[in-house]
Amino acid sequence: MPRILAIANQKGGVGKTTTALSLAAALTLAGRRVLVMDLDPHGCASAHLGIFPEDVAATSADVFRARTPRETPWERVVIRPRLADFDLAPSHAALLDMETDLADRKGKGVLLKEALAAGPAYDHVILDCPPHTGVVLVNALVAADLCLIPIQTDFLALHGVRNLFDTMRTLNRALPRPIAYRALATMYDRRAKACQRVLELLRGKFVGRMFATVIGLDTKFREASAAGRVIQDVAPGSRGAREYGELAKEVLSL
Ligand SMILES: Nc1ncnc2c1ncn2[C@@H]1O[C@H](COP(=O)(O)OP(=O)(O)OP(=O)(O)O)[C@@H](O)[C@H]1O
Ligand SMILES: [Mg+2]
């Protein structure tokens, strides 16, 4: 069974997609077989890797539409982007319709978990979650063995986290075991006093629940997405590449 890692935070632009792709690349470099599922209807992870819904046979949305887990068309959903060393289940705007499409579906919160259990063999499946609450995010959190919460080290950072905790608390009431999570400080500017202060606050709030690795600001991330590649390929010696390597080690040690 693969280990399922959900990258989630209901605040937008905090580094979820960057973390999903850079961690996938780091785990791949560590010799693991990795699948990234793009669950965000905006499809930023897919677009980053040069994959667009009109070019593919099936997408993550088809995983939710399968009648039974065994009928999930994984062989059509999963592709290997030309410039990546890991697999991708691309996004589709139809992920936005799941609220209505699945309205009357029984067990609609466990569809992804069951589909993954009947899915192809990977060491890790990384779920790039949408920045809004809904049936897709619930499916991701229910399926996850570990939820990674990227938090931008700025003063508005805790805003989205509160929403995510509300969602997790609601789910935890229905689940046999609480959702395991770790916070990840992102876009940290070492020279900014305000960033240092936020990092201290976060460490106080997430005692024992925060990755020791901190992801700093690095312009190479933007260069990587412009090139349709991951930072490890564009700038292997960069700080960003090194920090996601450290994060991968931590993830593997948990
Ligand atoms: N450590 C970093 N240093 C510099 N830029 C970064 C870093 N992490 C992410 N970025 C940039 O910040 C922007 C937002 O990041 P990203 O798309 O990963 O966030 P997100 O949480 O997935 O956003 P959304 O909620 O819209 O899906 C992107 O342009 C990305 O390249
Ligand atoms: Mg994103």
From TrEMBL:
Show where the AAA domain sits: 3-174
Q: Name one Pfam family in it.
A: AAA_31
Q: Which Gene3D superfamilies match?
A: P-loop containing nucleotide triphosphate hydrolases (3.40.50.300)
Q: What is this protein called?
A: Cobyrinic acid ac-diamide synthase
Q: Which organism is it from?
A: Solidesulfovibrio fructosivorans JJ]
Q: What is the lineage of its organism?
A: Bacteria, Pseudomonadati, Thermodesulfobacteriota, Desulfovibrionia, Desulfovibrionales
